[in-house]
Amino acid sequence: MTRPLLVLATHDDHLARRWHALGEHWPIVRANRFDALPAGARLALIDAELPDLPPLGDPRWPRLAASLRMVFASSRPNDGEGLAAIEAGCSGYCHAFASLEQLTQVVDVVESGELWVGRAILNRLLRAVDHASKAPAAPGWAAGLTEREQEVAQRAALGESNADIAAALEITERTVKSHLSAVFEKMGVADRLQLALRVHGIK
């Protein structure tokens, strides 16, 4: 299977040299400016310090996200910026100087169509989804799930941790993980955010 071109968008030569090692897994090209992102690119690792980077609230981001899966990489990551990046349409948020192994994993996850964010950002997204939803749950979302799987799924969709779910339902964390794996498979979702969107009928 041919890997898509990975755009390394950074003006920092030191960072570019670190990221260049990703060329072992993807064909790569470098862009020194945001407005120099190649047309037709489908995957990009974007340095938060690019000099011409538009604010994350700029409408260019969601337009770009329609065709380009983006990882927003910051040398000073924080949850507020990460949440803004995801809301702008980026599919991943990570430390710009993460290890090659972790960067490879991040880009691989994003390329496969999933989301890469930290636990705190994910929980904030889940709470936002729950707040935005007027109904407690979308009808028919739980078709095929056991009663226990439904309980675990509803709590996970609200942003509860495995430990919190285990305590509330008086089961082990290992059992929670097992139920979540079954829920993800039966519902055809890849992560808790997708689960929350499905439960609330948003997608």
Account of the protein in words:
InterPro entries: CheY-like_superfamily, Sig_transdc_resp-reg_C-effctor, Tscrpt_reg_LuxR_C, WalR-like. With 203 residues, the chain is an alpha/beta fold. It has two domains: 112 residues, Rossmann fold (3-Layer(aba) Sandwich), CATH 3.40.50; 78 residues, Orthogonal Bundle (Arc Repressor Mutant, subunit A), CATH 1.10.10.10. It is built from nine helices and five strands. A five-stranded parallel sheet has the order 2-1-3-4-5, with helices on both faces. The longest helix is centred in the C-terminal third of the chain and has 15 residues.
Radius of gyration: 18 Å
Helix content: 40-55%
Biggest sheet, open or closed, and with what strands and sense? 5 strands, parallel
Strand content: 5-15%
Low-confidence stretches: none
Q: How many DSSP E strands?
A: 5
Judging from the principal axes of the Cα atoms, what is the shape?
elongated
CATH architecture label of the largest domain: 3-Layer(aba) Sandwich
Mean of residue pLDDT?
86
Based on helices, strands and strand pairing, what is the structural class?
alpha/beta
Instruction: Give the total of domains.
Output: 2
CATH class of the largest domain: Alpha Beta
SSE order, one letter for each helix or strand: EHEEHEHEHHHHHH
